[in-house]
């Protein structure tokens, strides 16, 4: 009888340990999955940021070129106007 009681207690304890291990593994897997998802999300945002920075730089360069072209086209007219007066 005592042996049977010990075996039942062992089975119950073993079942609890197995259940705890499985839930720990599940939680670990969920945390790992969350970390992977978070890392991918961060990488995506970093990629978007780099793309936006590239576009802003291209726009700034184009804007500068257009301003310089506009300034160059206006300068001869000013010089000519000054020479006539």
Tell me the major beta sheet. Answer: none
Uncertain spans, ≥5 residues at pLDDT below 50?
Answer: none
What is the 3D shape? Answer: rod-shaped
Q: Return the structural class.
A: mainly alpha
Specify Rg, calculated over alpha carbons.
Answer: 36 Å
Q: Treating each run of at least 4 consecutive H or I residues as one helix, how many helices?
A: 1
Strand content: under 5%
Average pLDDT: 80
Give the terminus-to-terminus CA distance.
Answer: 124 Å
What's the count of strands?
A: 0
Descriptors for this entry?
85 residues; mainly alpha; 1 helix; 98% helix; rod-shaped
Question: Could you explain how this protein is built, in words?
Answer:
- By secondary structure, the protein is an all-alpha fold.
- Helix content is 98%, strand content 0%.
- The chain is rod-shaped, with a radius of gyration of 36 Å.
- The protein starts with a helix and ends with a helix.
